[in-house]
Amino acid sequence: MNIVTTVRSPNFTDLDIPVEFVVLHFTAATLQRTLDIFTDAGSEVSAHLVIDRDGSIYELVPCLGGTARRAWHAGKSRMEVSTNGDSQLVESFNDRSIGIELVNVNGNIFPYTEAQYASLFGVIDRLKSLYPALGRPEAIVGHEQIAGFRGKSDPGLCFEWERLFAVCYPNLGAPRRAPLCRKPFAEKMAALVRALGVTLDRDTGEILVPKGVDPSLFEYLSALSESALSRDEV
What we know:
single chain; alpha/beta; Lysozyme-like; two-stranded antiparallel ribbon; 6 helices; globular
């Protein structure tokens, strides 16, 4: 795996966390925009790892050396987790999880690349060898599973959950990971970006954004979809 450690985020708590989960996200931005945000102290957000569309892996907050610092990726979060037949509410996933961002301007519209899947599967296998709690498939969740009540919908409709579990947890089953975003809503977002001239190069997996389109469009689109999908009344 090609792991870049020369780019680091200042946005983390200098505290080792018990790693019980991995949370998957999409960036809603290009690689460079993502790195700019995560290395800006004023943004107050980060993830442990970013996986680019060519499969390159950026370790922005330490986690691959056997201990993990507390990154700021999950926000307000909660999920009912079943263990040995008993269900319990788990909250505050920043305190107990590694966050992985997959570069994709919107994973409810655009597919992930083969290179991203290969790197992600390799990373998960490595993390499993470092953190015993990740040995169960239930430990891999999406942001939408833990913060869907806030409208978070990543990694989205296009992410291949069954493939991940088949490769990384063979013969252990595939926990249900239902997407928050529904196809009709995703189709409306896709129609909007197509009207703006955004296309996907099927050969390279590159998402092509015309020069006249503000790259922050997808961040606004993500924020709008979060508002539309949010069920949080707190």
